[in-house]
């Protein structure tokens, strides 16, 4: 029985030690090849708003189809032990979030194919509001207008 515990512990340590870092630069390169953008969703383990947004917005079937069509999605829990590489940054998910100016959760960063931030979302958004933001970023409307103008134009045309 002790031998089994030792083998399981050794396997766990091997996986932990040799876990691949989350290389944002490589993800952006892949997104460029697929003509997509990147959605980094930052959350915390014990954050009720984070869990609710994942459940009602991120995992909503319609929104998920749009995310999968237009973005490479990366869920980033700041409580994880994952290592992140992005440009000159190398460190923890929490350190990466801080380097991007994130200090409230949930938050989302949208990166373009140029590996630059296109939109920064702070806080919980329900399904409808998050869907509008996904549309705003996926259509690259951020190039010509702010989100409020996009919403007003969308409401006017509906």
Verbal overview:
With 158 residues, the chain is of the alpha/beta class. 49% of the residues lie in helices and 22% in strands. The strands form two sheets. Strands 3-2-6-7 form a four-stranded mixed β-sheet. It has a three-stranded mixed β-sheet with strand order 1-4-5. β6 and β7 form a beta hairpin. The radius of gyration is 18 Å and the shape is globular.
Please give the structural blueprint.
Elements: H1 2-17, E1 22-23, H2 24-33, E2 37-43, H3 48-58, H4 61-70, E3 71-77, E4 83-86, E5 89-92, H5 93-99, E6 107-111, E7 117-122, H6 127-138, H7 147-157
Parallel strand pairs: 1-4, 2-3
Antiparallel strand pairs: 2-6, 4-5, 6-7
Adjacency order of strands in the biggest sheet: 3-2-6-7
Low-confidence parts: 13-17
How many strands in all? 7
Main β sheet profile: 4 strands, mixed
> What would the principal axes of the Cα set say about the shape?
globular
Summarize model confidence as the mean pLDDT: 91
**Beta content:** 15-25%
Cα separation of the termini: 66 Å
Helix content: 40-55%
Write a concise synopsis of the structure shown.
The N and C termini lie far apart (66 Å).
What tags apply to this protein structure?
158 residues, alpha/beta, four-stranded mixed sheet, three-stranded mixed sheet, 7 helices, 22% strand
């Amino acid at each position: 029985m002790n031998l089994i515990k030792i083998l399981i512990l050794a396997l766990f340590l091997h996986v932990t030690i040799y876990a691949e870092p989350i290389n944002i630069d490589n993800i952006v390169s892949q997104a460029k090849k697929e003509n997509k953008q990147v959605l980094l969703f930052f959350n915390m383990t014990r954050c009720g708003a984070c869990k609710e947004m994942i459940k009602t917005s991120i995992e909503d079937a319609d929104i998920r189809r749009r995310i999968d069509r237009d973005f490479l999605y990366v869920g980033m829990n700041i409580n994880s032990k994952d290592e992140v590489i992005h440009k000159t940054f190398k460190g923890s998910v929490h350190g990466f979030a801080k380097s991007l100016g994130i200090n409230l959760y949930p938050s989302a960063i949208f990166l373009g194919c140029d590996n630059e931030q296109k939109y920064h979302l702070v806080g919980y958004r329900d399904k409808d509001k998050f869907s509008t933001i996904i549309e705003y970023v996926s259509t690259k409307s951020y190039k010509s207008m702010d989100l409020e103008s996009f919403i007003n134009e969308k409401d006017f045309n509906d």
